[in-house]
Design brief:
Blueprint (H helix, E strand, L loop, with lengths): L2 H12 L3 E5 L3 E5 L4 E4 L3 E5 L4 E14 L3 E14 L1
Antiparallel strand pairs: 1-2, 2-6, 3-4, 4-5, 5-6
Amino acid sequence: MNTLQRSEQLGEILGRPVITFTGNTNLRIEGHKGVTEYETAHVTVRLGKYNLRVEGVGLAISSINSDCLTLTGEIQSVRFES
């Protein structure tokens, strides 16, 4: 079992989102609760109790479904907001 499979299982067990970065150009969020803001310079994603704000250049949602969201573009900062 690889690390990604273990982190996905941990997220399911704890009921918390799993956030995976690939360099600074790809961000995958499993267990999101929706998008509250979406522009090419920033995206805010609900994670339940907290929001995740991603700032960068040329940000785009490359895929989204009820559980998983993938952002692409140049990611410059990520922060949790309450």
